[in-house]
Amino acid sequence: MRFIFLFLTFILPLCGAPKKEKKAPLGSVFSASSVVPTIVIDPGHGGQDRGARANAPFCEEKRICLQTARLVRKHLDQLGYHVVMTRNTDAFVPLPNRVEKAAQADSSIFVSIHYNSCRNPSAEGIEIWFHDSKENKTRSKASKRLADAVLPRLIRRTHATSRGVKRGNFYVLRETTMPAIIVEGGFISNPHERSLLKDREYQEKIARGIADGIDQYFKGRGSCKAPRQRTINDFEPG
Does the pTM of the predicted model rise above 0.90? Predict the structure, then answer.
């Protein structure tokens, strides 16, 4: 009798206890049944390709691109997105390999991070580029929508000058098949901006702005994939 009493009181209720569902990451807008978007973050340059650079204080584009990209990945991870990096170290990655990595990852969007340079040291601000393809309007519109979501949030975080959303025929924008943008996060050639870009707190602001914009893009109308288009220009921004 004592065994039956213990069984009915303690063991039987446990058998029918519902299992707890695994919660999505804090801040995520996705339900447990939804597919989490894959985002490819592309730190510009790397290895022997140093990008723009300047002294006093010394600043090298390839290094701050990677530092910023890692911070963007951190914030997107916290929001519940799946992030793939085209490079995680100071390594040279050819442009076709970057595009191929995005294709292999079946990414929803492609975001390349760069910093600007100009002969005029007073040039300043943040700009975003997308490819306006006449053959693939659906992807072009999605790319512009992504750029329009990211830029104002970058400006809100950094209080930098907005240089607007621009059209460009850069390789990684043209040859990818998903919505794609290039973020030019400031001018290394401008002494004031160069000092800011070397500061970890300012890099955090840039990274948060990019992550905020990406998150807003997916909360809005979402992204589109399109057939691959090929032309002959094979150049990359500074």
Answer: no
Nearest to 178 by CA among 144, 211, 142: 142
Between CA 39 and CA 150 the distance in angstroms is: 14
CB atoms within 10 A of CB 79: 21
Return the pLDDT at 25: 43
Assigned CATH class of 34-219:
alpha beta
Give per-residue burial for 176-209: e unless 16+ CB within 10 Å, then b: bbbbbbbbbbbbbbbeebbebbbeeebbebbbbb
Domain boundaries, the chain: 34-219
Tens digit of pLDDT for each residue in 212-226? Answer: 999 999 998 543 333
Query: 31-87, pLDDT tens digit by residue?
Result: 444 689 999 999 999 999 999 999 888 999 999 999 999 999 999 999 999 999 999
